[in-house]
Each structure stands twice: as structure tokens, then as C-alpha cells.
């Protein structure tokens, strides 16, 4: 987890290559796997040829998959980035169903090439509301917001004249990462699975950032018990090297050989590093470790939210954590349909969240860096400080992360208050 800069300073890395480094930088088992391939004289790039390295990776991957999918799965190697896997998944479901449209969700992020961008929050075919408590689009909190979001989706699918053709598939993230670390409620995920299954709509789950133990389960869909039709995988499955695959149910295997390819789909070093990473996470119970340590970190960070009014929300699952910064001087945004004041269930989320504070979040990020802590920003307004530490993080390192982040928030909030112009 520790890296050294050119100036000799040491940093705790809570970005981890956007979640790519499940075991941190240069873990011995990853380096050993790479050296073994190099020393063997095996070809480094094999396109679609079967090799012992590829067989080992596929075997280990299938060992970790949700049983309902693994027992009926096919795998397709793509180009080296997750966005390539997303493109392949879209092509797959369109070929299998003979339909063209896709259902996606507000706040989604599925990559940077054209098709993946179209499925992200800026230009999707059909955009559906994604549930969240802190900034619920329906002005309610908890399960009520998720229920309204599910009803909206159901109405779009069942309306005889919605202006939406029957879709080729639905794609979602179990936890929206770039969208601000927003976990999808388990009950809502199960509802989306039921809605799509009842209407013969393939469900694509994007596990590019949430997979390989990150959220406290090996795959984030396991929290809800959902078995998707398609999973798109990248980042940590390559053990720090570029690798992307699509795993899909055999019933969808309607495309011709070569229908989707990528020049670097046969990266043997990445497959070896990925096999070592998958096996290490599985054999050492790192997903369970992420679940327990992440829960403790979330508890401590929520205490931080109680101390600082500039911390509007703390959320996440496992070692995928977001801290949303808000303007402490501004009042909550009023909801269109506020609930009665006497409602005992009324919370900050139902009253309305304070305005996001992207400049304050950037200041917290800078202060973290000064203290030797690397964090990332995300969210709709770039106001969420994101923590994605390696799954190998120790208790001592976790404590140091929380101490440095707390100190950074304190300094940034104090400076923000002092420099804010008087009205």
C-alpha cells in the first residue's frame, strides 16, 4: 500500500489504480507469477490460442463466480480495458435478442469509448433513476426511494406507448463508483433481476471496480443473491496488468466466432498475474477481511460526519468508501414534496441535502496528499472523496488513513470557512 515519490516521501495509496491493485503494488505472489511466465519462455501474446496460462486463469475465474452463472457460463476475452468488455457485452445481448436499445441508470459509468459513454450517465439510450438516500431523486429516504425507482422502471417497461422499444439488455453497477460510491440496495437489485427475467431482458452487471473482494464479497452481486446473465470484468482480475473479459450465460451464446475481438486479448502476463490475485484473495479470505475492516472504517468515518458539518454523507461497502463534502454554510435544498415535520422517520435525506462542495473536496484531497495519503474524487459534482485501499491493508494502515483524512478535513474546512467571503 506504500509507495515512494521522486522526492523520497512515502504515501499510503488509497486509490490503488482505481481499484485495480487488489493486493497493492508489486505483491510477491503477483511478481512471482509474472517471472514464472517470463522465465518459461512461453509466448507473451497468444490471441485466441489455448495455453496452460489461459487455462489456469479461466479455471480460477470460474471457481470464484456465483454458482448460478458458473454452471452455465461462457467466457470471452476482449481488449485490455473494462470499457472493451462493456462494448462486447452490448454486442452480445443485441445479437442474442435481436433488439437494439439498452436500459441504464443515472450516475452510471461504464467506460470512455463511444458505446460505453452512451450507456453512462451523460448520453444513454434510456435512463432510469438509480436509488440513493442522500440525494434521492424522489425526495424520500431508505427503502421508499428504492421502491419508487423500481416502480418507475416497471412502468417504463410495461407502458404500451412509452416511446421506449423493448430493450436488448439492462446494465447496472452493484455500487456506482465514479458516480459517487452509491451502493444499490439489495432488495432493489433483486427487483431489477426479477423485472428483467420476467420480460426476457438480459441483465448485465458491471463488476469492473466492485469485483474480486472489493465490497466484502468476491463479487458484489453476491450480497443480494442476484445471478446476472452477463458480468463484465476488468481492473483487479488482471493482477495490476491490463485484462478484460465478459462472462455470460450459455443461452446468450448466439454470436459467431470472431464477432468481437481485441488485439491484446491474449495477454499471458496479465492472465498469470490475474490467476495469482484471484487465488490469493480466495484462499486468504480477503473479501471477508474487506467486509469487516470496511465496516469498522465506515463507523469511524460516520463519527467524522457527526463532528464536521461539511461532511454530508459517508457510504460504501467493504473497502469501497465515499465521503461526500457539502457546503456547511448553506441550508439543505428543499424537496418538492416535503414530509410533515411530525414524521418520526424524517431524516437529513428527506429534508434535503446541503449543496455539494467540489472545491472543498479538492482541498481535502490536496491536504491528504500533503499528509502522505492518496485519495480520489468522484460523484456527480466531484465532491466525494473516494477510498479504494488494497485488500491487504493492515489495521495500522487503516488507522493511519483515518487519522490523515480526519486531519485533512479539519484543515480544509477551517481554511474554507476563513476564506469564504462575508455576505
From TrEMBL:
Gene3D superfamilies: Aspartate Aminotransferase, domain 1, Type I PLP-dependent aspartate aminotransferase-like (Major domain). One of its GO terms (molecular function) is pyridoxal phosphate binding. Coiled coil: none annotated. Its cofactor is pyridoxal 5'-phosphate. Belongs to the class-III pyridoxal-phosphate-dependent aminotransferase family. PANTHER family: DIAMINOBUTYRATE--2-OXOGLUTARATE AMINOTRANSFERASE (PTHR43552:SF1). This is Diaminobutyrate--2-oxoglutarate transaminase. It comes from Streptomyces davaonensis (strain DSM 101723 / JCM 4913 / KCC S-0913 / 768). The gene is rhbA.
